[in-house]
Amino acid sequence: MNTAPLLVEEFATSVLAVPPLARRADLSLDVAQNQRLIRHIEAGGQRILLYGGNANLYHCGLQDYAQMLGMLASCTLDSTRVIPAVGPDFGKMMDQARLLRGSGYRTAMVLPMQGFTSPEGVAEGISRFVDAAGMPVTMYLKSEQAVDIARIGQLVDAGRILAIKYAVVRDNPAHDPYLQALVGRIGAHRIVSGMGERPVPVHLRQFGLASFTTGCGCIAPRACLDLLLALQRGDTATADALYARFMPLENLRESISLIRVLHDAVTQCGVADMGPQLPLLSASPAERMGEIKALASELLAFEMQHRKQAPVRHAQQQQQQQ
Q1: What is the pTM assigned to this prediction?
Q2: The domain containing residue 93 runs over which residues?
Q3: Mind listing the pLDDT tens digit for each residue in 92-149?
Q4: From CA 261, how far away is CA 125, in angstroms rounded?
Q5: Is residue 38 assigned to a domain?
Q6: Residue 247 lies in a domain
Q7: Count of alpha carbons within 13 Å of 210, Cβ hemisphere only?
């Protein structure tokens, strides 16, 4: 795991993979299978792993969490950043802060708490966590009402918020005055699109966001990274073609459950055996497993073919630049 000081500019260098977490039948962490998934993602060139919702950390106990921190630090390459999530409630955040302080992790993502919060309370909770953990947070923003832009700006200015995972859903992501105002206050380089692939072309082309989080990119990491690079260099044709490859599985995830389908998709296509889902969640509906397997396997097959073609594409790009 990369434990060097984290610069916000690093967020533009990689997609943020958001993997599920492999468990054995007794719900203990499966180190071998987690490392298998990590190696697959790293082999695709991605260097930022974000363990949060897809890892079902909402229901992860403190002992489990401490074991996970040690496992992820030892299972990743020295060049790979790992961002663990904390919360969503304040008590859990502060308990996790004590585990994170001095651990080598450089930021933690605050999971969104549904209800029983106020903007003032969220800002104070983030500040207290930062003081206790000794690191800035990455804020998972799912609602305009969570914290107002003025307070977010103040927390950024104070070095308490490093980056934002932006996940406020819009019917039309191109029409988002709130995101535009947020970009104006803290800069697009501090914001990553945080809702999977669907809004990514708009978020990067129109708003200039640094990068994006991905679940399906855990199955097709090289193709997902190349989607980011194509968007960054303005290669619309390549970006649109890669984007289309992710949407069938992404659509299926949205129709059932983003977390549950990804967990099962990684297993069904053979990347790694994720084992059972941690309660209070459960596996995807049994009658949909065939569909999940087919789409995940199709995406994985594309990924492996895409990797074989990578040296040819690189040589062509070099010729075009000369």
Answers
A1: 0.95
A2: 8-241
A3: 999 999 999 999 999 999 999 988 999 999 999 999 999 999 999 999 999 999 999 9
A4: 32
A5: yes
A6: no
A7: 25
